[in-house]
Amino acid sequence: MLYREAGQFKSSYADDQRIFPLRQDRHAFWALLAAAYVGVPLLANDYWLQAILTPVLIFSLAALGLNILTGYAGQLSLGSAAFMAVGAFAAYNFMLRLPWMPFPLAFVLGGVTAALAGLLFGLPSFRIKGYYLAVATLAAQFFIIWVLTKFPWFSNYSSSGVITAQVLSLAGYKFLTPVSKYLLVLICVSLFALAAKNMTRCAIGRAWMAVRDMDVAASVVGIRLMPVKLLAFAVSSFYCGLAGVLYAYCYIGTVEPEAFSLDLSFRILFMVIVGGMGSILGSFLGAAFIVLLPIGLDHILSALPGAWLPAGFGSNLQLMLFGGLIIFFLIVEPQGLARLWQIAKEKLRLWPFPH
Amino acid sequence: MSELQFFAEVLTGGLLSGLLYALVALGFVLIYKASGVFNFAQGAMVFFAALTYVGCLEKLPRWTGLAADSVLLVWLALLLALAAMLLLALAIERLVLRPLVNQPPQTLFMATIGLAYFIEGLAQGVWGANVRGLELGIQDVPMDWVLDHTGMIVSRFDLFAAGVAATLVTGLALFFRHSRVGRALRAVADDHQAALSVGIPLATIWRIVWAIAGFVALVSGLIWGARNGVQFALTYTALKALPVLILGGFESVPGAIVGGLIVGASEKLAEVYIGPWVGGGVESWFPYMLALLFLLIRPEGLFGEKHMDRV
Amino acid sequence: MAARAIGPVMLELRNIALSFGGVQALRGISFDVRQHEIRAIIGPNGAGKSSLLNVINGVYVPQQGEIVFQGRVRRRMDRHEAARQGMARTFQNIALFKGMSVLDNIMTGRLLKMRCNFLQQALYWGAAQREEIAHRARAEEIIEFLEIEHLRKTPVGRLPYGLQKRVELGRALAAEPCLLLLDEPMAGMNVEEKQDMCRYILDVNQELGTTVVLIEHDMGVVMDLSDRVLVLDYGRKIGDGRPAEVRADPLVVAAYLGNPSMPEGHA
Ligand SMILES: Nc1ncnc2c1ncn2[C@@H]1O[C@H](COP(=O)(O)OP(=O)(O)OP(=O)(O)O)[C@@H](O)[C@H]1O
Ligand SMILES: [Mg+2]
């Protein structure tokens, strides 16, 4: 009898429109936040912080971005990683060339630059849809990475376009430890996840979903398709761009353009598919799943008593698993892990009485 | 050599490799027409086919005890690769297409991205990931006759490859025009109900078409593999078929050919004339940008027609 | 029957022609709609009724003719402009947003009236929150009017056909339109559902004064509801006038000959 809505009357629309209308959900969420902000920094070791929690959070942000564009606004994109690259390289250059700039501003400007690039490559969505648009986003993927590789100015003339993230410092404090970087990422991700939730439950979110579900009807209720789609591209690329900044500054530190490959774009797409299209929660679940799967797989394979496994077996198995899982989810649960979570909650609500 | 001669040489080289893009694009078009699926995995199929062929060629002497230079080996390897593509087609129809029938096109598209990952993992898992050469017995040397008469360098291999591509394209076009399966296929493209009246079950048509696409992938894989080596990058080369399709339209065989020629020629010209100014590597993105710009001007493609959405 | 006074002409189409490739869907159609009236459009299948409605709010672009709405003469209507000027509509093949709930679908009808920008919405603070709640209240009024309170959080894709049509009407009403275009709002409904739908349309027309243009095959409904009827056949106008006049018109009867959807009398 723990998970019940009985006795909770919603007396106003404001109550009904909260993110978590149920009290139990709210409590669980606050507990989760407390664990993330207090429990984890106190308890987790560096391996967990650096290799697992930080990347999961960063990719959640990227997946949120793609989910806004593809899951909510219905515009398929295969170029998310390129927008991450734009964010990372833009922030690097802002900090390099304007040393007075506090890093939060450089981070935001990195995101804004990515948003502008997103706008540019979103322009064709005015005239084309579906696969055509997907191919257009491939142009962004290949072109942007090429530009960042071929014009050494972007990487300050380092060899082969590698950039090394500057040390982040704010009011004398330097973000050097894994905990401090984790907390920085956590703050960014919580803020922007909240913003995404707010947008998607408000007018603009409805406009995006309307365009996704039926664009003719959307235009007939008075939605201007072009600005709405472009805004989705801009917001989505901003999120990806910021994720790229965090990836460079709080996760790997030294990064080359090729790190933001087509493969990474696909992985972000997989996060959205596995997690759940059109779901904020799903973006987190999907990112966790796709980031953790290879790590878990490595652990399992290394525990196996076999030097007999051929070289590269793990990475090929990973490719097959990813591919298989995508097909599996599309067939069995197209709404992804978020939907499974919802079903589990509904079961719990009825438990222990099946009716 | 004169400026004009040089231009003609680059153009010819581009057009010849464009025919190869057309060949890969043809695989897409066939599947799109028959099952309405935009098969992103076509590139992975090309890779898989080529790798299976060279892999068999490597292993067969040990398995069969044949001498390593026996002609029989080549034929056996070809046969095995073909069988593998057939099996793959059957498996895809059964495990991916059938469960996803009637799903929105975007879902099917994403499923084929998953399929591409699966096939790539499978191919490398079975045969290993190292780069291999592939020998078709045709040298990549200038044609003496052309060199003597026009002063242009035209590769013998390119000409051979273009010939193969042209033959295959013509053959398939004839097959679809005149055979029963071909007629059924065209009916399916128009209307799934109508196709049933031809008397061939839809599943069978899909299997046949995916198998043919597998065959086309094998031929493309052999040629591309002989040219650039059999390696993962083959999948990226095959991706260039996407802008080809955008230019030519997803449903048109002639469109695929014309689109392929445009992409092949323009990317070579861009590499030679624009490349030096910007540090090279233009080929990696030029076809996509070309397709993108083209879409802005003519969203319905070269051969498509304008239409109003029906409500 | 009309309790409200019919006003001056608010919408006029002049000599509209539309074709798709070889198919001439509309051939020189002229007609007008007066304020506060219920204007029916009838005709056999493929007569061009839906096309005409689509021309009125800019879904289709005619090759010839003029559209005069609220005193402005236009060659073509822009969909967005039409919505801003107070047109709202439903579609023959329900065009709801399938992935969204009933409430969200109805809320999209109010999008044009919402003023906050996306940054304010991202913060969901102050003005944005107040606006959201105020419009929610208006949407709830419509939900109550259409008697679908119990379904507000249901995804529309899961509703049966009749209820989907009702939600689509709700979305149109949410925009508080002055001109409501309804494309076969009662098609495929049972008698009870049809009666409900008729009541909603009449209520809206009489109490809010909303002008209605309505395509309908059920002649009983047309006779009961409408003030004037336009008859199309093969893209041509073959009749226009009061219901009783139109039904007595030999041309109209001939067009419908052998068509079972032309019944004898009132339903
Ligand atoms: N988008 C379109 N593209 C091509 N042809 C169209 C389109 N829309 C309508 N048509 C054609 O125009 C003609 C008129 O169609 P319309 O839908 O207006 O008829 P209708 O009177 O609404 O018929 P129904 O009673 O069946 O709804 C038909 O021949 C139809 O096939
Ligand atoms: Mg109609």
Helices and strands, with pairings:
The complex is a heterotrimer of chains A (355), B (311) and C (267).
Chain A: H1 13-16, H2 23-43, H3 46-72, H4 80-97, H5 103-122, H6 130-150, E1 163-164, E2 168-170, E3 173-175, H7 178-201, H8 203-213, H9 215-220, H10 225-252, E4 254-255, H11 262-275, H12 280-303, H13 313-332, H14 336-350
Antiparallel strand pairs in A: 1-4, 2-3
Helix pairs in contact in A: 3-7, 3-8, 3-10, 3-11, 3-12, 4-5, 4-6, 4-10, 5-10, 7-8, 7-10, 8-10, 11-12, 12-13, 12-14
Chain B: H1 3-35, H2 42-64, H3 71-97, H4 105-127, H5 144-150, H6 156-178, H7 180-190, H8 192-198, H9 202-228, H10 234-239, H11 241-248, H12 253-273, H13 275-278, H14 286-297
Chain C: E1 9-20, E2 23-34, E3 38-42, H1 49-56, E4 64-69, E5 72-74, H2 79-84, E6 87-89, H3 102-108, H4 118-123, H5 127-145, H6 161-174, E7 179-183, H7 191-208, E8 211-215, H8 219-225, E9 228-233, E10 236-241, H9 243-248, H10 250-256
Parallel strand pairs in C: 3-8, 3-9, 6-7, 7-8
Antiparallel strand pairs in C: 1-2, 1-4, 4-5, 9-10
Helix pairs in contact in C: 3-6, 5-6
The complex binds adenosine-5'-triphosphate (ATP) and magnesium ion (MG).
How is this structure best described in words?
The complex is a heterotrimer of chains A (355), B (311) and C (267). Chain A is mainly alpha-helical and 355 residues long. Helix content of chain A is 71%, strand content 3%. Chain A contains 14 helices and four strands. Chain A has helices at residues 13-16, 23-43, 46-72, 80-97, 103-122, 130-150, 178-201, 203-213, 215-220, 225-252, 262-275, 280-303, 313-332, 336-350, and strands at residues 163-164, 168-170, 173-175, 254-255. Chain A has a two-stranded antiparallel ribbon. A two-stranded antiparallel sheet of chain A has the order 2-3. In chain A, strand 2 and strand 3 form a beta hairpin. In chain A, helix 3 (46-72) packs across helix 8 (203-213), helix 8 crosses helix 10 (225-252) and helix 11 packs across helix 12 (280-303). Chain A starts with 12 loop residues before the first helix and ends in a 5-residue tail after the last helix. Chain B has one domain (15-235). Helix content of chain B is 75%, strand content 0%. Chain B is built from 14 helices and no strands. Chain B has helices spanning 3-35, 42-64, 71-97, 105-127, 144-150, 156-178, 180-190, 192-198, 202-228, 234-239, 241-248, 253-273, 275-278, 286-297. In chain B, helix 1 (3-35) runs antiparallel to helix 9. The mean pLDDT of chain B is 83. With 267 residues, chain C is α/β, with parallel strands linked by helices. Chain C has two domains: 1-86 and 177-267, P-loop containing nucleotide triphosphate hydrolases (Rossmann fold, 3-Layer(aba) Sandwich), CATH 3.40.50; 99-176, no CATH class. Helix content of chain C is 37%, strand content 24%. Chain C is built from ten helices and ten strands. Chain C is globular, with a radius of gyration of 19 Å. Mean pLDDT of chain C is 89; it is low at 262-267. The chains are: A mainly alpha (355), B mainly alpha (311), C alpha/beta (267). Chains in contact: A-B, A-C, B-C. Chains A and B meet through helix 6, helix 11 and helix 13 of A and helix 4, helix 11 and helix 14 of B. Magnesium ion binds at residues 49-50, 92 of chain C.
